[in-house]
Design goal:
Blueprint (H helix, E strand, L loop, with lengths): L1 E11 L2 E11 L4 H8 L2 H7 L2 H9 L2 E4 L2 E6 L3 E3 L1 H12 L20 E2 L2 E2 L6 E8 L6 H21 L3 E4 L16 E6 L7 E2 L12 E4 L9 H12 L46 H11 L13
Parallel strand pairs: 8-9, 8-10, 10-12
Antiparallel strand pairs: 1-2, 1-8, 3-4, 4-5, 6-7, 11-12
Helix pairs in contact: 1-4, 5-6
The chain binds zinc ion.
Zinc ion binds next to helix 6.
Length: about 300
């Protein structure tokens, strides 16, 4: 297991006091964990023509000397993750013998052994926007501002706290300190606009990647980053409920409420509509993270 020294907060009225806290990230993806428990699945999936075809048709991108597939438009996945996503969609399930959906959850979450994957309570999700990775000062400022608004959008609806550690913005990715995830510019040559990560992915995958085209994109920047941060909080694509036959995940009893207005449903909507956190998203996010911390006047015991 990898250790991450993140920050947690003890709040005083109108102010957050930061404390150091050790946070454990998974050392392996959920998919790797599932395949380890079920090694025969690997050969089964690899022998399926549909999988071979899917793998051959996906775009690939090199990030920090590692090659990944781009899946569902804005997710970076390795081969094991691709196998599990493929299997889930093909079987309209989320491998219910291994893990199953939680009750009363409006957003689609990552599940590990029957538990919802989320960040630890009290953890401040610190990030920096790596200035030198963007093409210009104005590109950097556009991303910085859109991140500010997108993080506030989530803080307004559920019990999460983000913090931009601006003094780290000039650093290189390898020398970042006190930052859980960097937001960095990258030239994907238009393969993607922005890519996110899940908290269930190993720590070296905790990066938000922004293509050079982002600042001039015809897409709404705030919509993109609000969506991307939904992944960072552990929410999956709403349209991931659809299977290959375009139905919903039949065995996901509590995931029947397909929400076309979800901020996590951007298929066919990006560029045509502004994505906002819908009422069902708010309820789903609160079922995982609780109500917005902005509602409370916290009392410190010190
Ligand atoms: Zn997405």
């Amino acid at each position: 297991m990898l250790l991450l020294f993140g920050l947690c907060f003890v709040a005083k009225p109108g102010q957050f006091k930061l404390l150091k806290l050790a946070i454990m990230g998974y050392s392996k993806t959920l998919s790797a964990q599932i395949l380890e428990r079920n090694p025969s699945l690997i050969a089964t999936i690899e022998s399926m023509n549909e999988f071979v075809e899917l793998e051959a048709n996906l775009k690939m991108v090199m990030i920090d000397e590692e090659e990944y597939y781009i899946y569902e438009d804005d997710l970076l996945v390795d081969k094991e993750e691709l196998m599990i996503y493929f299997w889930e969609q093909k079987h309209q399930t989320i491998l219910s013998n291994l893990y199953k959906p939680p009750s009363s959850n409006e957003l689609k979450n990552l599940i590990n052994y029957n538990k919802i994957v989320r960040w630890k309570p009290g953890l401040v999700l610190t990030y920096s926007v790596l200035k030198n990775t963007f093409q210009s000062e104005s590109d950097y400022k556009i991303v910085k501002e859109a991140m500010k608004q997108a993080t506030e959008a989530w803080e307004d609806v559920c019990g999460v706290k983000f913090e931009h550690v601006e003094e780290q913005d000039e650093r290189k990715i390898k020398s970042l300190k006190g930052v859980i995830f960097p937001v960095r510019g990258i030239n994907s040559k238009g393969i993607f606009t922005a890519l996110a990560f899940y908290p269930s992915q190993p720590k070296n995958r905790w990066k938000v990647l922004i293509d050079y085209s982002f600042s001039s994109s015809r897409y709404d920047q705030l919509s993109i980053l609000t969506h991307v941060l939904g992944h960072v909080l552990g929410f999956r694509h709403e349209y991931g409920r659809d299977n290959v036959g375009n139905g919903m995940m039949v065995d996901a009893e509590n995931h029947k409420m397909y929400n076309p207005k979800s901020v996590m449903n951007f298929k066919g909507r990006l560029g045509t509509q502004v994505l906002e956190i819908s009422e069902l998203d708010r309820r789903g996010a609160q079922s995982v993270y609780g109500p917005s911390l902005k509602k409370f006047d916290f009392i410190d015991a010190d």
